[in-house]
Amino acid sequence: MNIIVLMRMVPDVVEELEVAPDGKALDMEFLRMVLSETDDHALEEAVLLKEHFGGTITALAIDAPEIDDALYAALAKGADRAVKIVDAEPGLSARAAAALFADAIKELGPADLILTGAQAIDDLDGLVAPLVSHTLGMPYLGTVTQVIPDLAKRTATIIREYPGGVRGEFDVPLPAVLGIQAAEKPPRYVPVAKVRAAMKTQKLETLSVQTAADAGPGLVEVIEMAKPAATGRAQMLEGEPEDIAGKLCEVLAARGLL
Amino acid sequence: MGSAVAAFEDNVCGITLDNYMEFPEGRRLLSCIQCGVCAGTCPYGEFMEYPPRKMIAMLRAGLAEKVFTSESLLNCVACYACMAKCPRDIKLTDVLLPLMKEQTLTHLPEMPAELQRALQNTLRYGNPMGESSRKRAAWVKTAGTPVRILTEDPSPCDVLWFVECYTSYYPRGQAAARATARILNALGIDFAILGNEEKCAGECGRLTWEPGLFETLVDYNMAVFHKYRFNRVVTSCPHGYNALNRRYVPLGFHWELDHIVPFLARHIESLKPLMRRKLDRLVTYHDSCCLGRQYDFYEEPRKLLQAIPGVRLAEMTHNRLNSLCCGGGGGGMWLDTYYKAKGYERLSERRVKEAVATGAEVLAVACPYEVSRFEDALKVLGHDKKMVVRDVTELLADAMEA
Fold this sequence. Notes:
Chain A is of the alpha/beta class. Chain A is 31% helix and 26% strand.
């Protein structure tokens, strides 16, 4: 079974996020990028599938700061190839990213499964996976939590999770594009020595695809990006417990709650 | 110190579970008399399928795999108790246990999530709590006293203060950072810090189990050290001290090295006239494993505490060589959830019960891991009204207040 995992870097929210001077995007200068958490789950699901059913994994990513670290970690975890799409503009829209991925997948050759994160913090609509599936003419399922392939029948049983603890089971013909919500196990730890060994012994492949420019910046225009303004403040009651209790009663009474 | 460390490194550098017989420290395992003192003194020995004694027996029988495919080593908090008491002087905590732990964690089907996060955070952000590396020196703004950051002013200094993670980020750790800065300035010491350039020294890597993470941190920190000119490194963290001493020295770390407590103890005569405020407290001191059993700094913290006007010392039943570990070493800092799930007593709670039994009002510590561990334990046991936890530097700085 051949699996392609699509990996994207997203802003690391551990760092302070600043809005760029044009007020329409994040300030890239102070940003650190990190592998999207759900893409890490997609990679884990791929590694679990390879462990159970054999096959190969290709980690496919769009060039971004620190992407090499993420790709070498993917190789150390069990990916067979790591391919980086170069020459892309920074800050791609979901449409543009999907177009790049779809073209790169055509170049890479046939795959049985294309896995990626169901959502990303900069793609809450989870558009990338369905757009890729549309371009490639493959079926798509999102918010996937388990994949059980039947290679003889060229199908897979897909488990999806719904709110309220409801679980859905689907059959999908392969090849298919799946948006992974969570892998069956949390993404594994890869010892740093293994990543360092991968850096010494394995190579990242690069791929330049041309058509992405046609996909344009997307059909949605950003009018303004700003930090949310504080709308209210918490009121702290201070003093001895009796005083606090008294003040609390006053506050509640003033609001007609007592 | 230098030659002892060089000898240590000659004896163990490159040692593995396969080639241990080629090394003096490895061959020393053959001298084990199976007395079991190690197992008896181990704070979590009762929960280990293979405590150190059995571990050695299994290794000698060619059955090491059985040890590292069990979870025994997850219970090792690298407290140096077994090593300090071994009648054959076998370097358990420095040599055998990290090798076994490395294999254990490689073979675990799933790493405890809390530990995994801490290791990933240390690699990415240079600190286990996953705080932004750009905020490492943020505490300096609250210091209330000048703290020179080498990134901003790279001129030479006498003391490079290696602040370390919990002292830089953890709110109660920052209190010790502020206190240390005030003391160093009061003593007129020419010091500076690396600021946001500093990353964890990585003791809970190499000395415990993650050699790749440790090597990455060593490469990084050594390159930063070489950018600046200073005479000595003083660190607030006994674990950082242990890493710098045991593992950085053979890799080219050639500066004088101190932990803040023995460093200040050397300045005790200058400190005494500065401490004019009477604290009037009964204090008990907890010996940190890395400072105590590993480096014999037993008297330095006690001398400092006794130099504070009004401080009286009370000793816990287990003190100095017999001190009970807070449970934070060897990765234990990030295994509390795992231990709780297994139903173990938290070692910090065991320790705090002893501390409270002394009747002391203050539990003095010298390791930044211990503040959060003991404060949590006091709250869990309902003793937080009876006793407070204070870093030795906090108490010294309190006594210096006008």
